[in-house]
TrEMBL record:
<keyword id="KW-0963">Cytoplasm</keyword>
<dbReference type="InterPro" id="IPR002307">
    <property type="entry name" value="Tyr-tRNA-ligase"/>
</dbReference>
<feature type="binding site">
    <location>
        <position position="170"/>
    </location>
    <ligand>
        <name>L-tyrosine</name>
    </ligand>
</feature>
<comment type="similarity">
    <text>Belongs to the class-I aminoacyl-tRNA synthetase family. TyrS type 1 subfamily.</text>
</comment>
<keyword id="KW-0547">Nucleotide-binding</keyword>
<dbReference type="InterPro" id="IPR024107">
    <property type="entry name" value="Tyr-tRNA-ligase_bac_1"/>
</dbReference>
<feature type="binding site">
    <location>
        <position position="35"/>
    </location>
    <ligand>
        <name>L-tyrosine</name>
    </ligand>
</feature>
<keyword id="KW-0030">Aminoacyl-tRNA synthetase</keyword>
<dbReference type="GO" id="GO:0016874">
    <property type="term" value="F:ligase activity"/>
</dbReference>
<feature type="domain" description="Tyrosine--tRNA ligase SYY-like C-terminal">
    <location>
        <begin position="338"/>
        <end position="414"/>
    </location>
</feature>
<dbReference type="InterPro" id="IPR024088">
    <property type="entry name" value="Tyr-tRNA-ligase_bac-type"/>
</dbReference>
<keyword id="KW-0648">Protein biosynthesis</keyword>
<keyword id="KW-0067">ATP-binding</keyword>
<dbReference type="InterPro" id="IPR054608">
    <property type="entry name" value="SYY-like_C"/>
</dbReference>
<comment type="subunit">
    <text>Homodimer.</text>
</comment>
<dbReference type="Pfam" id="PF22421">
    <property type="entry name" value="SYY_C-terminal"/>
</dbReference>
<dbReference type="InterPro" id="IPR014729">
    <property type="entry name" value="Rossmann-like_a/b/a_fold"/>
</dbReference>
C-alpha cells in the first residue's frame, strides 16, 4: 500500500486536516490510535456513516488502532443541525439504538489481533459527570467567542428559532470525548465528516489545553453527484444500513443505478478495490457503458460490505430473475417481496383475470386494445413466459410466493399483479 494519506486522498476520502505534515509523520511512525463517533439519533446508520466506517477500515488495514465510539450520552442531545432543534429521545430509546449501532459497526472492523478495534460508549464518562466538575474541569477550557463562531452555531443564532443551550453545549461534550480517549487509550486522531470540522477541532483544542499534547483531525468531504446535487437519497428517504429499514435488494439497486459520471468515483470511495481494478472498470465505462460492468461491481461490493455475501447473492439472483435470467420460483419470499416492492401493482383474481386485464390493471397498458396489440406482437410476459393468448387466465400455479405474478411488457417494463391470499 502507498502512504495511507495518499491512498485516502486518491480515493476522495480526504478534505481537511489540522496539520497534514504532523499527521503524516505520526502515521509513518505509528501505530496511531484513532477514533470516530456515531450518535444514536436514529435506529440505524446511513450512507454518510458508511464513508466514516470505510475510512476507519482503511486506517486499520494500514496498521493503526481504531476506537469506535457510540454516543450513548451525546445521542441524548444530538449534534446541532443547520436549522431546527432536534427532538430529544428518551433514555430507553437511545440505549436501544446504541446497541443497534454497535452491532452495525462491528461488521466493518476487525476486533482481533495486535491492532484490534475497541468499542466505547461516552455514557461511561459523561453519565457520571457532575455539573460542577463539568464546568470546572471541562468548561473552563472553552471560550465563548470560539464556540459562537462555529458555522452551525452562527447560522442557528441568525435564524428565527435560534439554538438552545443544550445543543450549543454539544461541541463541549464531543471535545471531552477526545480528551477522555486520549487519557484512556492514547488516542491522538479523530476522523469525521467535513461538516463536523468545528466539533472535531474543539477536541484538538481541549487536548492541547488540558494535557499540553498534540492531537489531529482528518475529515472526509461531502459526497455529491457529478452534477453537484446531494448524494444518497432514495424515494423513501435515507439509504439506511439496516436491512429492515432499507432492504438489501433496494440497497443493491441504489448502487446499481449509479450514473456513469459518478460510478468510478464511488468505486474509489465505497469499495476496497485496487487502483488497477478501478482503472480497468473505468475503461469499461468508457468503452462499453451499456454493459454497466462498473455499476455491477459497485453494487456487489457495497452490498457485500454492508449486508454480507449471502444477501448479495440473493439480491443479485432476484435482479436477474425479474428479467428472465434466473428462476423466479427459487427466490425466497422476503427477497421477492423486496424485489417487487417498487414496481407498479394492480389487483388480480385467479380464474377470472386475463393477462390482458392484468396489463391494464397494473398500468403497463392504458386500455384493452393496447394490451391486445402487445400480446399479439409477442411483447407480453407472465412470470417471464411469453403470452400468446390474449384470453389466458391467471391460474393458481402462476402465483409466486406472497401472491404475486410478474408481468413484463417488452424487455424492461415490469409490474406486479397481486392476489389477496387471505
Amino acid at each position: 500500500m502507498t502512504d495511507i494519506l495518499d491512498e485516502l486522498r486518491w480515493r476522495g476520502l480526504m478534505a481537511q486536516s489540522t496539520d497534514i505534515g504532523a499527521l503524516r509523520a505520526a502515521l509513518a511512525e505509528g501505530p496511531v490510535t484513532y477514533y470516530c463517533g456515531f450518535d444514536p439519533t436514529a435506529p440505524s446508520l446511513h450512507h454518510g456513516h458508511l464513508v466514516q466506517l470505510i475510512v476507519m477500515r482503511h486506517l486499520q488495514q494500514a496498521g493503526h488502532h481504531p476506537l469506535a465510539l457510540v454516543g450513548g450520552a451525546t445521542g441524548m442531545i444530538g449534534d446541532p443541525r443547520m436549522s431546527g432543534e432536534r427532538q430529544l429521545n428518551d433514555k430507553d430509546t437511545v440505549a436501544g439504538w446504541t446497541d443497534r449501532l454497535r452491532g452495525q459497526i462491528e461488521r466493518f472492523l476487525d476486533f482481533e489481533g495486535e491492532n484490534g478495534a475497541r468499542m466505547v460508549n461516552n455514557l461511561d464518562w459523561i453519565g457520571g459527570l457532575t455539573t460542577i466538575d463539568f464546568l470546572r474541569d471541562v468548561g473552563k477550557h472553552f471560550r465563548l467567542g470560539t464556540m459562537l463562531a462555529k458555522d452551525t452555531v452562527a447560522r442557528r443564532l441568525e435564524s428565527d428559532e435560534g439554538i438552545s443551550f443544550t445543543e450549543f453545549s454539544y461541541q463541549i461534550l464531543q471535545g471531552l470525548d477526545f480528551l477522555e480517549l486520549f487519557r484512556r487509550y492514547g488516542c491522538t486522531l479523530q476522523t469525521g465528516g467535513n461538516d463536523q470540522w468545528g466539533n472535531l477541532t474543539a477536541g484538538v483544542d481541549l487536548v492541547r489545553k488540558a494535557e499540553g499534547a498534540s492531537a489531529h483531525v482528518l475529515t472526509t468531504p461531502l459526497v455529491t453527484k457529478a452534477d453537484g446535487t446531494k448524494f444518497g437519497k432514495s424515494e423513501g428517504g435515507a439509504i439506511w444500513l439496516d436491512a429492515d429499514m432499507f432492504s438489501p435488494y433496494a440497497f443493491y439497486q441504489f448502487w446499481l443505478n449509479a450514473d456513469d459520471a459518478d460510478v468510478v468515483r464511488f468505486l474509489k470511495i465505497f469499495t476496497f478495490r485496487s487502483r488497477e481494478e478501478i482503472e480497468e472498470l473505468e475503461r469499461a465505462v468508457s468503452e462499453a457503458p451499456g454493459a454497466r460492468e462498473a455499476q455491477r461491481a459497485l453494487a456487489e461490493d457495497v452490498t457485500t460490505l454492508v449486508h454480507g455475501p449471502d444477501a448479495t447473492e440473493r439480491v443479485r439472483r432476484a435482479s436477474q430473475a425479474l428479467f428472465g435470467r434466473d428462476d423466479l420460483r427459487e427466490l425466497d419470499p422476503a427477497t421477492l417481496r423486496d424485489a417487487v416492492a417498487e414496481l407498479p401493482q394492480g389487483p388480480a383474481e385467479v380464474g377470472r383475470s386475463t393477462v390482458m386485464d392484468l396489463l391494464v390493471a397494473t398500468g403497463l397498458e392504458k386500455g384493452r386494445n393496447a394490451a391486445r396489440r402487445t400480446i399479439s406482437s409477442g411483447g407480453a410476459y407472465l412470470n417471464n413466459e411469453k403470452v400468446t393468448d390474449e384470453e389466458q387466465l391467471l391460474r393458481t400455479e402462476d402465483l409466486l410466493a406472497g401472491g404475486y405474478a410478474l408481468l413484463r411488457k417488452g424487455r424492461k417494463n415490469l409490474a406486479v399483479a397481486t392476489v389477496d391470499e387471505a
